[in-house]
Amino acid sequence: MPKTQEKARLLETRRVAEDTHRIALYAPRITATARPGQFVMVRITSEGTDPLLNRPFSFHRIHKDDGLFEILFRVVGRGTWLLSQRKEGETLEVIGPLGNFFTLPPAHEETVALVAGGIGIAPMEEWGHRLAQWARGDEARRVYLFYGARTASEVVPTRRLERKGVTTFISTDDGTLGRCGTALDLLDQTCRDLSIRPQRLYSCGPLAMQAAVATWARQQNLPAVMSLESVMACGIGACLGCALPAVPPDDSSRIHYVHVCKEGPVFDSRKILWEKMEPMPVRPLSFVCS
Ligand SMILES: Cc1cc2nc3c(=O)[nH]c(=O)nc-3n(C[C@H](O)[C@H](O)[C@H](O)COP(=O)(O)OP(=O)(O)OC[C@H]3O[C@@H](n4cnc5c(N)ncnc54)[C@H](O)[C@@H]3O)c2cc1C
Ligand code: FES
């Protein structure tokens, strides 16, 4: 897959939820080959070395005809804060598209569920959009989105996906919007209440959520395709900083590692050795929702 370094023009910047921004970048060469699930490395500053490293962001929306893509990001540290301060008309150095991508469900599957936790909603918008197109080709096909955030002010609007026909359910950890509880509580409870039987999950969110979703999927005997995050330095397989423990490809008992930037970020959850992660992704305690 060709990757390109491009000076991207910042066309639009918008705050869409608390500490959460969406920016549109005009980068026709990167956009031309971008696919949902892939990511770009963004050089945050044009001068100096602070922050030193580029930062990875998923494609949130891809507009092939206009040569532009959008990223959605949450301010968590210096790099994302600096990015939130960049102004329309400025340029940013971007490398991409990087990594692998989501693929459509096999022909016999009709019902799929997207599970997004927090800023994990970012890649799900473009992927949900593609799945909505897939569903339009067959009456029996259904696409659901289960989206959990910490609190109402952090919920990114999902109207665009709903308009495309993605049935959306929302939860917040503190119950200020939608069902009270985590994204997994939402998925589990809504599937029971409405007798929804997804045949495949696509998920993105914090590692603790992903580990819990992987366990749930295993119990339900469902494939779960996950866009995983890890801290990345180079984004191109050169520094080995993004490795996660995985099931070895052969019968050996040695721990095998996969690199999120190269072999991912999209993985079959059954290929990841969740229990060997350090530190172990711990599911946050559920709020007591009355
Ligand atoms: C493939 C990939 C795609 C991503 N897509 C998006 C996206 O679409 N939108 C978005 O908001 N974020 C995304 N991220 C995470 C994003 O890259 C980090 O939030 C960002 O690099 C933090 O930079 P910073 O300088 O602001 O924070 P730093 O100062 O570097 O770190 C601040 C805090 O965030 C934590 N952190 C840093 N990087 C990560 C990471 N990769 N995962 C989890 N925690 C991290 C640090 O441990 C620290 O606690 C993605 C990460 C990967 C690997
Ligand atoms: S980030 Fe450097 S090898 Fe993956």
From TrEMBL:
Belongs to the PyrK family. It holds the Pfam family DHODB_Fe-S_bind. InterPro entries: Cbr1-like_FAD-bd_dom (IPR008333), Cyt_c3_hydrogenase_gsu (IPR012165), Dihydroorotate_DH_ele_sf (IPR037117), Dihydroorotate_DH_Fe-S-bd (IPR019480), FAD-bd_FR_type (IPR017927), FNR_nucleotide-bd (IPR039261), OxRdtase_FAD/NAD-bd (IPR001433), PyrK_electron_transfer (IPR050353). Keywords: 2Fe-2S, Electron transport, FAD, Flavoprotein, Iron, Iron-sulfur, Metal-binding, Transport. Residues 3-104 form the FAD-binding FR-type domain. One of its GO terms (molecular function) is oxidoreductase activity. This is Dihydroorotate oxidase B, electron transfer subunit. Binds 1 [2Fe-2S] cluster per subunit. Binds 1 FAD per subunit. [2Fe-2S] cluster binds at C234, C239, C242, C261. FAD binds at R55, P56, F57, S58, L72, F73, R74, G79, T80. One of its GO terms (biological process) is pyrimidine nucleotide biosynthetic process. PROSITE patterns: FAD_FR. Its cofactor is [2Fe-2S] cluster; FAD.
